[in-house]
Amino acid sequence: MEIDEIHSCLEDVSDQSDGENIHITQLDIEDQNVATTASTSLSSPDDNLGIKRGHPVHNVWSYAFDDPDAHTSSKPNHAVCKHCKESVRHHHKVLSVKTHLKRCKKFKKLMLDTAVVDRPGWWNDPASKSKKSNASKSSTSNPSKSSPGTQPSARSFAVPMFTTSQQKKFNRDIAMFFYNTDTSFQRIEDPFLASAVQLARPGVKLPTRKELADDSPGGLLQQSYEEVKHKVDKLLSNPNQFIGITTDAWSNISNESVINYMAVCPTKSLFIESVYTGEQGHDAQWLSQDLSRVIDHLGDNVAGAVTDNTSANKKMWSILEREYPTHFFHGCVAHGLNLLVKDILCAKKKEPPGGGPAAYPDGYPFEDLMVFANDCKEVVMFFHNHHGVKARLKKALASAKLSSLVKPAPTRWGTIHGCFKSLKAADDILNSLVSERDFVNKGSAKQKDKRLEIKAIVTDPDF
Fold this sequence. Notes:
The chain is an alpha/beta fold. It has helices spanning 3-17, 31-41, 60-64, 94-103, 105-112, 121-124, 129-141, 154-158, 164-181, 191-200, 209-212, 220-236, 284-298, 311-323, 333-345, 367-385, 387-399, 414-425, 427-434, 445-459, and strands at residues 78-80, 87-89, 243-251, 257-264, 269-276, 302-307, 328-331. The longest helix has 19 residues, at 367-385. Its main location: nucleus. InterPro entries: DUF659, RNaseH-like_sf, ZnF_BED_domain_contain.
């Protein structure tokens, strides 16, 4: 064969691939066969008698059709796929056959059941010549972006796409995460979340902010609410499960009056609802009517209710005991004990009849304890409100692997004990900070007096 004939063969290969990324070395034949074919083509004409000239037949034809000659021009330009039995208009082009096989569901399943090493090369690497060319240009102009052709596509076939039901379940679970953790819906638009989800499961779509907030019938928010309510109602309606109701009146950050209702059983505590009372005062009549509404809604499993210890709530107990004679109604015992201890220990300072500084009543046995508790609060609040010493204290505590100082809260009785404990652990660090030369020399005269007071408390051997 002359050199021109070799060039003609190569052109035939290019035409047959119809723009596909096919080279002599990439055909699904052994390299030795290619070398043998090339060697034979360069031999003398006498040696080539009886051997069909031209490029080898692409194996995609045998994967798609039972007819071994479907690719020849003497055959029609369409054939029946041996997998899905659909008519394929291939026009004698390899690319058309590949396109069909990659869309054929039965062939996809066959490939998923086949080891990756046993799959044809064109299945694992479907990038075309034009795509690689464009990717090369893109990577040259923008090196920071990876080329689309560098990522094998076999993984997209190995990990099947979500079905419609799976996508809906995924959306509901994502939505419940946002509702349960009180996460802002805006976080769903974070690009790193979308990137992580695509890495784990290509093709999966996250719900939008609008979908997360959709409380219309069939919306994610409404569906999630109905599912949770169904589970709660099922638990509360268990005939073998007795329920106690707890109420708590409080004010939110907007200073709006709110009453929370909880259902408590031996294994769970369930939030029932919050009632914003608005202009309605918390008198005994209204409180009893609203609690009666909750009891009737929950049914016969309710054994009673525990409320606050205010005078209005005490009157409410009497009203409800007449309406529900088999139920119990009383105040919070833990709160009652706290109030009892507070009445005993927390006496208030009063000015003496003749004038002078306020003092505890004569003979008050817990004066030393009250003074100590107030001193601890003063120390904690000083370091909490002064940024400079607060930052230095925080750094020193972190270096010593100690927790921050606990600030006492009026309605969190355990924080008093936590305050004492944190101050004791940080005693050496606090002494070091208040003993520095410039600790008492900063600020106005009033601030200096306060710093001297804090230093005296911390350095007192009895503290």
